[in-house]
Amino acid sequence: NAGVTQTPKFQVLKTGQSMTLQCAQDMNHNSMYWYRQDPGMGLRLIYYSASEGTTDKGEVPNGYNVSRLNKREFSLRLESAAPSQTSVYFCASSEVGLANYGYTFGSGTRLTVV
Amino acid sequence: AQSVTQLDSHVSVSEGTPVLLRCNYSSSYSPSLFWYVQHPNKGLQLLLKYTSAATLVKGINGFEAEFKKSETSFHLTKPSAHMSDAAEYFCVVRYPGANNLFFGTGTRLTVIP
Question: Which of B46, B52, B100 sits opposite A48 (nearest CB)?
């Protein structure tokens, strides 16, 4: 099925550990995004990639790094996990250039940092 | 500052009664507007979007929303709630020139049998 695939779906980390969240889309979209979702705060943008080869900070980038590996893949890395990074992470993609576009979201990664 | 406000964090309705989820945006310009739904432990699904054509937008599952520029609102409605509508709903805005979307804080809809 076409869409956005995120791995893993669940992860528990100890404080200070590192990990990479993977995201891939097969819709030939140019733009990809990483959001975190916390109770009562909606979704907040961490980083985005408007096109292959570019990345930009969003609203809450501290503690994260990203890599736009190719047009399909956009990974999010936590170098030294902290309990404040316990959250649900969503990857999304969209086609830039249209006047009104929506996002296609992955099913999320639930991360717990202990 | 650009923002989007969902006026109710929680709405509770009886099955078969109308649903109204409120959303206001802040902008002098007409933005792109969306409603997304998130069922428990699931990703976000697009319900409908405003494309600057008709101000009354119809979406999936019987939902619709009306864009009112004079009130800077984009409220989501459904004539008759179903148990399967119980979920969290997000009003989302893309402002002209912005590369990303702004999310409201969400409204949790409970449907009482």
Answer: B100
